[in-house]
């Protein structure tokens, strides 16, 4: 699939898309921005009329014939962007036909769905998950700081940057938690907020509405995390993301890193974002990377492409998937994503009931422990 490129360039990654909603368009924009690396061969949508509209708008073959889409299989893998209510069903269908799947999150809407999906496809190694938050530039830079050891052993994080399973993913990675059991308590706070932009665009008038803020405390043995998210954050101009990471030799707060070079020498530095095309720079408009002092904590793997941070992160998942199906390493397994969603479901239970809940070892974690 795709054409061999020149020199050290890798084979172009050709994928199909299942679904034609808001998330599918991220993948289409990425393929447009990076045509030398990615190509969308075909799109499948359940609604025939919407499929015709999508083909007209994007100029990519679109069909509502699932058997035809799967039978032609003119792609290396399928990207699944369907709703969580049907995602597990289609993941199983694709894996059952031996088709590798990169699925959007979450892979199931309930614990029962996650367990059934694990039972059906957990042993196939055909499924990876496009959990993109850890690949967003600033989060990737924070993870690099944590993994460098500058902060020492990490004992506590506070994450207000993503809802549910996205927030859990960041918490697990920043804390260095795998499938450890968690004790979770939580509550929801409702406050008024002037409405801002949304998926539908800019606000047409000033509107005051309820803003729901989820708070949860997660304890993983000797490590802990505070989850804090209001659902307006993704678009709001006035509700910002916040991340705090505490280790025994330092602390990362937002973009500021504070650590001890030795017990009498404190050091402070900033995670400094470097973008071309600003202040008279004529290289073009794109993200270059993130520096901490003189060290690059993150380098954009797609230099020169005009992509948002979210698109850079999704493109990273796409590239990883291309390498995975050629024998490369797993980058976000179904087990990891199932654990994120499982803890997210427990967190919602704790918030809704006011009770403290405790996770138990699930089959995907037991399998991961066995290697």
Can you describe this structure?
The protein is α/β, with parallel strands linked by helices and 371 residues long. 33% of the residues lie in helices and 29% in strands. It has helices at 22-33, 48-58, 66-72, 84-96, 111-121, 137-148, 164-175, 309-324, 334-353, 363-369; strands at residues 13-18, 38-44, 62-63, 77-80, 101-103, 127-129, 154-160, 183-194, 208-220, 223-230, 242-247, 250-253, 256-262, 265-276, 286-292, 295-299, 357-358. An eleven-stranded mixed β-sheet has the order 16-15-14-13-12-11-7-10-9-8-17. A six-stranded parallel β-sheet has the order 3-2-1-4-5-6, sandwiched between helices. Helix 1 crosses helix 8 (309-324) and helix 4 (84-96) runs parallel beside helix 5. The longest helix has 20 residues, at 334-353. 39% of the residues are buried. Mean pLDDT is 94; it is low at 1-9.
How do the helices and strands follow one another from N- to C-terminus? EHEHEHEHEHEHEHEEEEEEEEEHHEH
Query: Would you tell me the overall average pLDDT?
Result: 94
Number of helices, where a helix is a run of at least 4 consecutive DSSP H or I residues: 10
Q: Give the overall shape.
A: globular
Taking strands numbered 1, 2, ... along the chain, how are they ordered across the largest sheet?
A: 16-15-14-13-12-11-7-10-9-8-17
Uncertain parts? 1-9
Cα gyration radius (Å): 21 Å
Terminal Cα separation, in Å? 31 Å
Report the helical percentage. Answer: 25-40%
How much of the sequence lies in strands comes to: 25-35%
**Biggest beta sheet summary:** 11 strands, mixed
Structural class by SSE content: alpha/beta
Using DSSP, what is the number of strands? 17
């Amino acid at each position: 699939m795709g054409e061999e490129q020149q020199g050290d360039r890798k084979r172009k990654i050709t994928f199909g898309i299942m679904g034609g909603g808001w998330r599918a368009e991220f993948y289409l924009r990425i393929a447009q921005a990076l045509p030398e690396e990615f190509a969308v061969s075909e799109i499948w949508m359940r609604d025939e009329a919407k499929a015709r509209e999508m083909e007209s708008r994007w100029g990519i073959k679109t069909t509502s014939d699932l058997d035809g889409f799967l039978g032609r299989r003119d792609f290396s893998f399928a990207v699944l962007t369907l709703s969580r209510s049907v995602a597990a069903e289609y993941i199983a269908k694709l894996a059952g036909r031996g088709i590798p799947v990169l699925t959007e999150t979450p892979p199931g809407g309930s614990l029962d769905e996650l367990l059934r999906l694990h039972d059906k496809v957990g042993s196939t190694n055909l499924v990876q998950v496009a959990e993109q938050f850890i690949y967003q530039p600033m989060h990737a830079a924070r993870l690099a700081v944590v993994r460098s050891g500058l902060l020492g052993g990490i004992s506590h994080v506070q994450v207000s940057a993503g809802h549910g399973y996205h927030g859990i993913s960041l918490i697990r990675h920043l804390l260095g938690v795998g499938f450890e059991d968690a004790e979770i308590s939580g509550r929801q706070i409702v406050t008024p907020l002037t409405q801002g932009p949304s998926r539908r665009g800019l606000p047409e008038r000033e509107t005051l509405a309820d803003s729901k803020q989820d708070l949860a405390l997660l304890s993983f043995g000797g490590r802990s995390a505070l989850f804090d998210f209001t659902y307006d954050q993704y678009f709001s101009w006035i509700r910002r993301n916040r991340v705090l990471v505490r280790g025994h030799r330092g602390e990362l707060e937002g973009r500021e890193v504070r650590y001890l070079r030795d017990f009498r020498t404190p050091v402070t530095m900033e995670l400094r974002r470097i973008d071309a095309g600003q202040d008279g720079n004529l290289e073009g408009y794109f993200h270059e990377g993130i520096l901490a002092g003189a060290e690059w904590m993150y380098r954009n793997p797609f230099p020169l492409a005009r992509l948002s941070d979210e698109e850079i992160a999704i493109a990273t998942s796409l590239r990883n998937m291309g390498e995975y199906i050629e024998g490369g390493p797993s980058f976000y397994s179904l087990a990891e994503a199932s654990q994120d969603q499982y803890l997210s479901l427990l967190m919602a239970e704790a918030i809704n009931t006011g009770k403290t809940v405790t996770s138990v070892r699930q089959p995907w974690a037991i399998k991961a422990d066995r290697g």
